[in-house]
Amino acid sequence: MNILPLLQCLEPCLTPTRIGQMSCIIQAMLSMTGRVTMLGISRWTERGGSYRTIQRFFSTQALPWGQLFWLFFHQHLFCADETYVLAGDETVVTKAGKQTHGLDRFFAGVYQKVVPGLSFFTFSVISTKQRCAYPLRVEQVVRTAAEKAASRAQKAAKASKPSGTKRKAGRPKGSRNQNKLAVELSPELQRIQQMLHKQLHQIAGLIPLRYVTLDGHFGNHPACQMVRQCGLHLISKLRADAALYFRYAGVYAGRGRPRQYGAKVDYRHIPAQYLKQVRVEKGIETHIYKQKCCIRNFASP
Fold first, then answer.
1. Which domains are seen in the chain, by residue range?
2. Rg (CA), the chain
């Protein structure tokens, strides 16, 4: 398949020379095996893809990758009657050495531990009909000193907290009501929110997005408010021990503030009235329940 005609939509951002170089590089990356390096790319390219050409392509001024991804998606992949969901996730590439820009220690889900390497955060649009994801924005994660300090402080607070101790029942003396919507975002959430703003500005309403889906690391109230401040809703996963409560459906007692929280949700004995679907796949039976619940740390159900 000739890749060059597919890249003609990138002419507003790239010169014909750069488009030709990109065509050679793409063919090599789709053909090669193992880790992708400039030397490896040059070995798999045909005429016009020497090692010096590959070096010049990556060493010249940075390409507007976000705009290139969007132009390609809009030209070849976008479907007007499709429903899309925006998804964000972080990926870690192991890397040795000391001179690479952004080299740090990151938690890698594949290895289930912290490893030295590079981290990249990606926003993609997911086609709900074709069940495919199309990357639109990829940025390298370079943690600032403030972000590292916040991470160390959170880890120290967890270590200093005595285990097995419970505070007394009732409200602590001298505590005041707090506005749950006024959330101070961590440096990590601020960085992701900036990326989200850029992506929404680039889409400019062409795709009617309503939801952003993130993994369980962002299943908390600050991340939810970060997404809500961008005018979207968050799809994520709470912790397995999250304390959810049914909304109170009883009669008002006639004094004080009306009750908001009802019975606590027992995940092993959810009332049958909330059961929406039962399916069996490969001998595994799955029950799907749906109901609006409350959680004390969140501002809304």
1. 1-63 (no CATH), 64-155+181-237 (3.30.420), 245-294 (no CATH)
2. 25
Any idea which of 161-170, 207-216, 228-237 has the lowest mean pLDDT?
161-170
Q: Within 10 Å of residue 7's Cβ, how many Cβ atoms?
A: 21
Mean pLDDT value of segment 166-183: 78
pLDDT digits (tens, 9 = 90+) for 246-278: 998 888 888 888 888 889 999 999 999 999 999
> In this structure, is the dihedral angle defined by the CA atoms of residues 267, 271, 273 and 279, taken in order, positive or negative?
positive
The count of other CB atoms within 10 Å of the CB of residue 86 is 25
Supply 239's token pair: 């912790």
Tell me the HSE value of 292 on the side-chain side, using a 13 A CA sphere.
8
Closest CA to 228 of 246, 248, 214: 214
Largest Cα separation within the chain, whole Å, is 83
